[in-house]
Design brief:
The chain is an alpha/beta fold. The chain is built from 9 helices and 14 strands. The chain has 2 domains: 141 residues, Murein tetrapeptidase LD-carboxypeptidase, N-terminal domain (Rossmann fold); 139 residues, Glucose Oxidase, domain 1, CATH 3.50.30.
């Protein structure tokens, strides 16, 4: 575990944001709408040369995508790196990245969903604070809510300071503090047993997912328990857990499975934070200390995420 996290430099209007495509192939019109939205925020946008490449379902070959991401971290002009989209493919890049070199040139990295692979690897191996949040050719292209956009800009600029997010429901009581890790549940489970998985000891674990049947959510939580991960965390906060069909029955079963699989952890557990798929997708930093108060239904960020 890294003793002291590296906090990337704050992102200000006029700074350059690089857009990379580390996962699935993207559509040009989606990318263009996302770039326009970023430009409207006052950022200079630098699009990766190969961002529209295609190799099957992926945005180019693995080595090409890894090289583009590595180059963005090494580019002195770039102050932040935003992922174009998720889908699939980030996990294939992990053995191809030089995490020590990234640690020497830290900068904001933003993404979620399949980018959970990169977020946790960067926190674990580069020691960097990273950001779970909207992606350019998806969320930005569709249009973020005013609250989500204002929150993102303030957080990355270092203006948010301490802030808190409200959960919809408290499942199990308690108060805990720890470093925040996690992301997309299905991706996190796929990372177990690899050198890139997060250290779960004493952490506040954030989980979200989309398009999964309730029994699959249960199976993945059982996997986390039997792998020894859930039993080591200090608390669990769930964000968006949109089912595969949106039915009330699936939502009810998902909630019941989550409550059941976390009941014996002896730690605070909340659900319904507006982060991840099917929500406002408010940006949150990984690798910073947070306080989870289940009685008040609050996830509180108590330290700055940028320098």
């Amino acid at each position: 575990m890294i003793d002291e996290r590296i906090r990337p430099a704050a992102l200000k209007p006029g700074d350059t944001v690089a857009i990379v495509a580390p996962a699935a192939a993207i559509e040009r019109d989606h990318l263009e709408r996302g770039v326009d939205a970023l430009s409207a925020c006052g950022y200079r946008v630098k699009v990766s040369e190969r961002v529209l490449s295609r190799t099957g379902i992926l945005a180019g070959g693995d080595r090409e995508r890894a090289a583009e991401l590595q180059h963005a971290f090494g580019d002195s002009e770039v102050k932040a790196i935003f992922a174009a989209r998720g889908g699939y493919g980030c996990g294939r890049l992990l053995p191809l990245l030089d995490f020590d070199a990234i640690a020497r040139q830290p900068k904001i990295f933003l993404g979620f969903s399949d980018a959970t692979f990169l977020l946790n690897a960067l926190v674990e191996l580069s020691g960097m604070v990273c950001f779970h949040g909207p992606m350019v050719a998806m969320d930005f292209a569709r249009g973020l809510s005013r609250r989500s956009l204002d929150h993102l800009r303030a957080l990355l600029a270092g203006e948010a300071g301490a802030f808190e997010l409200e959960a919809g429901e408290s499942l199990h009581p308690g108060v805990a503090e720890g470093e925040l890790v996690g992301g997309c549940l299905s991706v996190l489970v796929a990372m177990l047993g690899t050198p890139y998985a997060p250290d779960f000891d004493g952490k506040i674990l954030f989980l979200e997912d989309t398009g999964e049947k309730a029994y699959r959510i249960d199976r993945m939580l059982v996997h986390l328990k039997q792998a020894g991960a859930l039993g080591r965390v200090a608390g669990v906060a769930f964000g968006g857990m949109r089912g595969f069909d949106g039915s009330e029955q699936e939502q009810r079963l998902t909630r019941e499975f989550i409550s059941e699989q976390t009941a014996d952890l002896g730690c605070p557990v909340v659900t319904g934070i507006e982060v991840g798929h099917g929500t406002e997708n408010l940006t949150i930093p990984f690798g910073v200390r947070v306080r989870l108060d289940a009685e008040r239904r609050r996830l509180m960020f108590v330290e700055r995420a940028v320098s």
